[in-house]
Amino acid sequence: LVSENVQITQRHDVALYRDDVLLVDGFVRFVESVLKLGNSAVVIATASHRTAILQKLREFVDVDAAIEQGRYVERDINDTLSIFEIGNLHDAVRFRRSAADLFEEAAKAARREHRRVAVCRECAPKPIPEANAKAVISQEDVFEEIAKSYDVDLLCGYVLSAFPRKDRTQIIRRICAAHSGVWEG
Questions:
Q1: Is the Cβ–Cβ distance between 125 and 158 less than 8 Å?
Q2: Alpha carbon separation from 157 to 63, 89, 114, 181 (Å, rounded)
Q3: Digits of tens for pLDDT over the chain (185 positions)?
Q4: Which domains does the chain have, with CATH numbers?
Q5: What is the DSSP string of 54-116?
Q6: DSSP 3-state assignment of 3?
């Protein structure tokens, strides 16, 4: 965990989880540390994962107060991806606009002088078809650009079973290379 006196620079990390339970636990630890510092957290995940994250967070922080203050925001990953994709074409401009509104709203709610927003994002809510591996890398590039533009800390979570067996190692290496840090869970 980070001390309140430390100025954090923007990070874009990836976490590779063996299963859904570990993804939820990893997101809970991430969000808990963010909220305890008075910052804002955005969780972008499936409905079942958001429910589990919220339930576990209640054991560690007053997440209901954070929700009321606007410091804890949830979004559905499938809705988020639908903004990003029109047909099979990526609509990065529309997505950036949507992300900007979300991040600015969350930043206003942060309670510290140096307001921070941290986002944890479930990246592959469904298995990744082999043909879509490039699209996953493309999404990472857009999220990296947005995170830098808005000085947002970003944790991208993948459950390993989402990757196709063919070329799994190569895809994971490319994803890890697109991030400033790699976590395993």
A1: no
A2: 21, 23, 26, 12
A3: 433 444 456 788 999 999 999 999 999 999 999 999 999 999 999 999 999 999 999 999 999 999 999 999 999 988 877 766 655 556 667 777 777 777 777 777 776 666 788 999 998 878 777 657 777 777 788 788 888 887 889 999 999 998 888 778 888 898 898 888 998 87
A4: 12-184 (3.40.50.300)
A5: HHHHTTTS-HHHHHHHT-EEEEEHHHHHHHHEETTEE-HHHHHHHHHHHHHHHHHH--SSS--
A6: coil
Q: Which of 4, 17, 21, 2 is nearest to 155 (CA)?
A: 17
Helix 133-149, helix 92-109: angle, nearest 10: 40
Q: What is the dihedral of CA 134, 138, 144, 150, to 10 degrees?
A: -160
For residue 113, give every residue at least 6 positions away whose Cβ sits within 8 Å of its Cβ, in sequence order, or none: none
User: Which secondary-structure segment (H or E) carries 119?
Assistant: strand 117-122
- What phi and psi, each to the nearest 5 degrees, are found at residue 107? -65, -40
Q: pTM of the full predicted structure?
A: 0.84
Tokens of 52: 């589990």
